[in-house]
Amino acid sequence: MTTPTFPPSPVSSRQVYDDNASRYDDFWTRHVLQPHRRLTEDLALRPGEKVVDLAAGPGVTLEMLRKTAPAAGVAVDPSRQMLDRGVALAKSEGLELVPVQLTAQAFLLGCEPESFDVLSLRFGLAYVDWENELASLSMPVRRGTGRVALLTNLASSAPQALKTYHAFMDELGREKAWPPVPKSTDQIEALLTRGDLEITHRWVEPVRIWFANGLEASDWLLQSGYIAGEALDAFPKDLLDMLKPIFASKLEADFGEDGRVPFDFDIAGVVARRKP
To answer: Most CB within 10 Å of its CB: which of 199, 206, 221, 230?
Structure first.
């Protein structure tokens, strides 16, 4: 199995993920276990198949490795701490996980064609130029049998946070950013089919996460990496610190339910097979 050997590529706010590698599963993964499991089942993985997981994070790859063992899996992520945790978790179960510290784009550029049976990209589209690159996801998987699996929050997710943020930007006279993820599975399907892929599964599941109050919800947005990226990096930290309690209060006032604050997510899963 050949993997790229050029140096790691930096990504915006990678420090967020480095700092929170040990807590990432608690921040995010535990809330979306059902969509993860559903996507893995849709892949119909078999022992011996070679899997690569882009934007792998600390441990979700293991769910696939348990089905493909004894074959080694490849985990690709820009965060060294995320990869180290994933490798340690795999080793604890007697599984082999090969870490590759690269962005998804860099890995795709250096990967040999038809090297894998399955390519998985879960909750990484916000860090990929997906409008131009989704079609290229077919390149690393084998013709006829290779599969590509995507799991992502859609742009309609966390409307409570988005509406509150947009109201702030309007008041401050600053340019608003929008979720850098697809709006629908139709959009994903149209892009994947350009890469000689045919869709075998597509679905959307709702997920609701509850927070004790607006401040806990605001901290989660920052600490989990959900809104990490260039837009956040460009936001002055002193202004961010000043606005956070105001943002939290507005979340509670506009969206609080029984003293708590919910965020609603639309989680989309798509599996496609590469044509012969």
So the answer is: 221
Is the pLDDT at 22 greater than 90, yes or no?
Answer: no
What distances in angstroms separate CA 107 from CA 19, 29, 45, 166, 210, one per listed residue?
23, 23, 22, 34, 36
Total-model pTM: 0.88
What is the pLDDT confidence band of residue 4, given thresholds at 50, 70 and 90?
very low
- Digit-coded pLDDT (tens) for 35-67: 999 999 999 999 999 999 998 987 678 899 999
199 three-class SS: strand
Nearest-10 crossing angle of helices 159-172, 214-223: 90
Q: What would the DSSP string read from start to end of 11-39?
A: -TTHHHHHHTTTTHHHHTGGGGHHHHHHH
Q: Which domains does the chain have, with CATH numbers?
A: 14-155+180-208+265-274 (3.40.50.150)
Judge contact between 273 and 197, C-beta under 8 A: yes
Query: Closest Cα to residue 55, out of 133, 148, 125, 134?
Result: 125
Sign of CA dihedral 31, 129, 2, 13: negative
